[in-house]
């Protein structure tokens, strides 16, 4: 798809993106840049990718008309059920794509970073499926907070290595994965989990996730006899689920795109992850984008109750959508997200991931017309968040 | 830039030292630089600490974290170095990641370097292509050398391109790795050093990453002009402080 919102050949979305990496990484990234489009467009690759998405991941995921939610918000609200994907979230769409690419590039060793563990689990899963060695970097603090996902990765045969530098969370796990890649320039493939990092990662991950919006067009045609909704809503940490659910609507200017960031305890509380409000242009993990940082250019540690949203940057595509006002950015606090999660559980019988609950909470902040068709991307299920729900609601 | 060029003309193998500004103590910067010069070091890379140094191993990471906790900033570094040229003559470079420099403002940063008497910059995550298209005129205006890195994986074509766009030296990374000490180089690395020497580049090369003793220093300077020690020196500083620097060099040359 040729869109003015796609990356150009140097990986820039407007002024954002690009490849800001040390020379030590250059050969790895260059190999990928030269081959990712060609390989991922081969008919054989596409066939294998689509077949795994269908037979293994369980796609297409339903586009579910949420009647009671629709009554409450006085609009036609649909949920894109990425929570029903194998492993519990949209993350696996991307890891399937990247593992097939890694195999075609002849790589034997797979590395990944993970925050809450969802991308780590999705990577460990596809490595088990393909019989490849898997090493997942995870912040020491996240390892403590997310013990069930650590156990899942181990069961799937992955080695989980603690990142002990800096703040010991996602950003540091990413740093460690990058260092591993520098130290292993020939046999190793780095599966990045979001639309972040140096070009071609943001574009590549967005393409693998774009299956979400591709399906919505077909499904909406069945439900409503039209391809395009009025609104698409998704949460944004790094922004992979949002990139996927926005992708095929980017050029449909009458489709309003809402990107929901985590405001944590309040945007200006000092404990927030609302990058579009608090960030400035900067370089993180090889990409120029909006970034939370000190005046002196040191990257700061974001906060959200949801471990999947506390990344100090956003993908360069999203920085561009924000900059051009193609997407509207809203933010939702911990409390609002937790209430929205409980509401969905009790009105529709679906327990969402707290990340996805942020997207749902935005329904409160918008006035809809009764005929408006609103698609909310339910990016993951809440099983992994049960402890947080238990503590928050004293269940 | 001139000071680096003159130093490179000297008929000797050069020893360059990297240290992180603001480590071990915030105010150590000037003392360390002066004592390094007094110990016979040929060139110094002053590390501007960054929160997320992706090309560095544990030693430099830890020193950067500590320096930032101590309160080091770009502004403060320039203040500390304000009068450095009254006492120090050897070439001084600043090595830092791109983001803090970007936030300071590239032009402003280069101007400050020029006023302070800094001779060049090493910015590992500023790629050649972007430097050439956006920042080269600013570096030229303030007579700052921009030093590029090459690794064993860098293509010959790119090495030639870097050579064409360099007026001082090329920073040769000894192996595919992040920074950190090694006790000796292997055959593959030595072959790489020779291969680069055989290319007859117009600029001399200085080898960094993995140099920590007489053996590695001599191996690195067999075919190249000089070598850079970073992590090993930082470990020494942590144990011995900034006042007792000269014994460090007994083990080097």
From TrEMBL, chain A:
Residues 58-380 form the Tryptophan synthase beta chain-like PALP domain. Pathway: Amino-acid biosynthesis; L-tryptophan biosynthesis; L-tryptophan from chorismate: step 5/5. GO terms for cellular component: cytoplasm. The keyword Lyase applies. One of its GO terms (molecular function) is tryptophan synthase activity. Keywords: Amino-acid biosynthesis, Aromatic amino acid biosynthesis, Lyase, Pyridoxal phosphate, Tryptophan biosynthesis. Its cofactor is pyridoxal 5'-phosphate. The modification N6-(pyridoxal phosphate)lysine is found at residue 91. It comes from the Bacteria. Belongs to the TrpB family. The beta subunit is responsible for the synthesis of L-tryptophan from indole and L-serine. Tetramer of two alpha and two beta chains. This is Tryptophan synthase beta chain.
From TrEMBL, chain B:
The gene is trpA. Pathway: Amino-acid biosynthesis; L-tryptophan biosynthesis; L-tryptophan from chorismate: step 5/5. This is Tryptophan synthase alpha chain. Its EC number is 4.2.1.20. The alpha subunit is responsible for the aldol cleavage of indoleglycerol phosphate to indole and glyceraldehyde 3-phosphate. The active site is at 45 (proton acceptor), 56 (proton acceptor). Keywords: Amino-acid biosynthesis, Aromatic amino acid biosynthesis, Lyase, Tryptophan biosynthesis. HAMAP family: Trp_synth_alpha. It catalyses: (1S,2R)-1-C-(indol-3-yl)glycerol 3-phosphate + L-serine = D-glyceraldehyde 3-phosphate + L-tryptophan + H2O. It is an enzyme of class 4 (lyase). It holds the Pfam family Trp_syntA. Gene3D superfamilies: Aldolase class I (3.20.20.70). Tetramer of two alpha and two beta chains. GO terms for molecular function: tryptophan synthase activity. GO terms for cellular component: cytosol. Belongs to the TrpA family.
């Amino acid at each position: 798809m040729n869109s003015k919102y796609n990356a150009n050949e140097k990986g820039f979305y407007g002024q954002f993106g690009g490849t800001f990496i040390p020379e030590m990484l250059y050969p790895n990234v260059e190999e990928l840049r030269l081959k990712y489009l060609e390989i991922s467009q081969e008919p054989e690759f596409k066939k294998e990718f689509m077949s795994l998405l269908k037979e293994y991941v369980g796609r297409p995921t339903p586009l579910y008309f949420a009647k009671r939610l629709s009554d409450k918000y006085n609009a036609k609200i649909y949920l894109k059920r990425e929570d029903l994907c194998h492993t519990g979230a949209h993350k696996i769409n991307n890891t399937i794509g990247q593992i097939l690419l890694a195999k075609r590039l002849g790589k034997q060793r797979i590395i990944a970073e993970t925050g809450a563990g969802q991308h780590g689990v999705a990577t460990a899963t596809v490595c088990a499926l393909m019989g490849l060695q898997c090493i997942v970097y995870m912040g020491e603090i996240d390892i403590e907070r997310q013990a069930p996902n650590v156990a899942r990765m181990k069961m799937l045969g992955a080695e989980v290595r603690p990142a002990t530098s800096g703040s010991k969370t996602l950003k540091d796990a990413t740093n460690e994965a990058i260092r591993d890649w520098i130290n292993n320039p020939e046999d190793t493939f780095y599966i990045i989990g979001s639309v972040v990092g140096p070009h071609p990662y943001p574009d590549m991950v967005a393409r693998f996730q774009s299956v979400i919006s591709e399906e919505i067009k077909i499904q909406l045609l069945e439900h409503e006899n039209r391809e395009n909704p009025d609104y698409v809503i998704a949460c944004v940490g790094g922004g992979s689920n949002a990139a996927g659910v926005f992708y095929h609507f980017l050029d449909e200017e009458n489709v309003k795109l809402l990107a929901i960031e985590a405001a944590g305890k309040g945007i200006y509380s000092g404990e927030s992850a609302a990058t579009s409000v608090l960030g400035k242009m900067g370089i993180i993990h090889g990409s120029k984008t909006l970034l939370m940082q000190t005046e002196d250019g040191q990257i700061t540690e974001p906060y959200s109750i949801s471990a999947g949203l506390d990344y100090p940057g956003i993908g360069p595509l999203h920085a561009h959508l924000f900059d051009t006002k193609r997407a509207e950015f809203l933010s939702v606090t911990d409390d609002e997200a937790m209430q929205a999660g409980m509401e969905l559980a009790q009105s529709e019988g679906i327990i969402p991931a707290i990340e996805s609950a942020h997207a749902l909470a935005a329904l409160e902040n918008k006035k809809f017309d009764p005929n408006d068709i609103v698609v909310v991307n339910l990016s993951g299920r809440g099983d992994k968040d049960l402890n947080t729900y238990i503590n928050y609601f004293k269940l | 830039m001139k000071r680096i060029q003159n130093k490179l003309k000297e008929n000797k193998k050069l020893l360059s030292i990297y240290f992180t500004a603001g480590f071990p103590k915030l105010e150590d910067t000037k003392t360390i630089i002066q004592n390094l010069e007094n110990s016979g070091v040929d060139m110094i890379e002053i590390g501007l600490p960054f929160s997320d140094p992706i090309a560095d191993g544990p030693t430099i990471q830890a020193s950067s974290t500590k320096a930032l906790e101590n309160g080091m900033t770009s502004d403060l570094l320039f203040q500390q170095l304000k009068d450095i040229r009254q006492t120090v003559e050897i070439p001084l470079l600043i090595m830092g990641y791109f983001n803090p420099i970007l936030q300071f403002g590239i032009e402003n940063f280069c101007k400050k370097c020029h006023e302070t008497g800094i001779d060049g910059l090493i910015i590992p995550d500023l790629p050649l292509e972007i430097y050439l298209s956006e920042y080269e005129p600013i570096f030229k205006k303030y007579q700052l050398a921009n030093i590029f890195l090459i690794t064993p994986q860098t293509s010959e074509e790119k090495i030639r391109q870097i050579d064409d766009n360099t007026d001082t030296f090329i920073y040769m990374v000894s192996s595919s790795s992040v920074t950190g000490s090694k006790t000796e180089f292997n055959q593959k690395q030595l072959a790489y050093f020779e291969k680069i020497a055989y290319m007859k580049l117009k600029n001399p090369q200085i080898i960094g990453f993995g140099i920590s003793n007489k053996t590695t220093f001599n191996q690195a300077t067999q075919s190249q002009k000089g070598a850079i020690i970073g992590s090993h020196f930082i470990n020494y500083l942590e144990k011995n402080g900034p006042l007792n620097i000269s014994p460090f060099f007994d083990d080097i040359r």
